[in-house]
Amino acid sequence: MNPLGVHALVFAGSWGKKDRERAVAGAARLGYDLIEIPLLDPKAVDAAATVKLLEQHGIKGATSLGLNFKADISSPVPTIAKRGEALLNHALAVTRDIGATYMGGVIYSALGKYPGPATAKGRRNCVSALRRLAKTAKQSGITLGLEAVNRYESNLINTGDQACAIIAATGADNIVVHLDTYHMNIEEGDLAGAIERCGSKCGYVHIGESHRGYLGTGTVDFPKIFRALARIGYGGPITFESFSSAVVDPNLSNALAVWRNLWSDSDDLADAAKRYIEVEWAAARQNSQG
Ligand code: MN
Description:
Elements: E1 4-7, H1 17-29, E2 34-38, H2 47-57, E3 60-67, H3 78-97, E4 102-110, H4 120-139, E5 143-147, H5 160-170, E6 175-180, H6 181-187, H7 191-198, E7 202-207, H8 222-231, E8 238-240, H9 266-289
Parallel strand pairs: 1-2, 1-8, 2-3, 3-4, 4-5, 5-6, 6-7, 7-8
Helix pairs in contact: 1-2, 3-4, 4-5, 7-8, 8-9
Bound molecules: manganese (II) ion.
């Protein structure tokens, strides 16, 4: 069975002691297998305490981050690209130290609205930095994921096809496509086709509604998405991601334009999401066999 995950920001806005305990305990209590820990500020994570906490609750950790405009491997400016690579290496070390085997997200560019299109030089910088990062990741058995996000959050990878092209350019075999249904709903004309074209390169999936609130209350065609994932034999993590102004991460919430209160009860939201995913995923797998 696919590991079911939940983003830490469903429960808490930081990875400080109280917040991480609340997030990990909440995820474990609801039966999630995995918690995704945001690493936009890697030095804010106490790795030893995190390892202990995850062990104590019997769940695994994965990490994710987005770069910023001062530290961006897709910048044509060498100093900015270098700072981006340093940030990624720091995040990778934390990922290793907490015993996680996956680091994904917008690790290929800044997370935010660019004033213009990506440049050829920036793309080359990105590909060579990812190639080096993948080598380092491999030594620790870590897989990297490039999350295709909407046009307001990156100018480099907005679709699964674009993620596949960058991965192919790196030549690395431990970089996967990270799909997110919220972003796909904006950018992919053909949800099923996008998933099928990624095929075995798809290694991590975020399940998010069109407004990033309760699953099933927006416009994302989840039955179609789950059926396509079943057809490609997807066996990777399925992680619920949702954001509300009720829980704020000073680094992440503003970058994601989380302005509205879409929910206030983390436990109810995460419980409903897990049930929704389990029902839809089981139905899709049955459908794809028949
Ligand atoms: Mn996502």
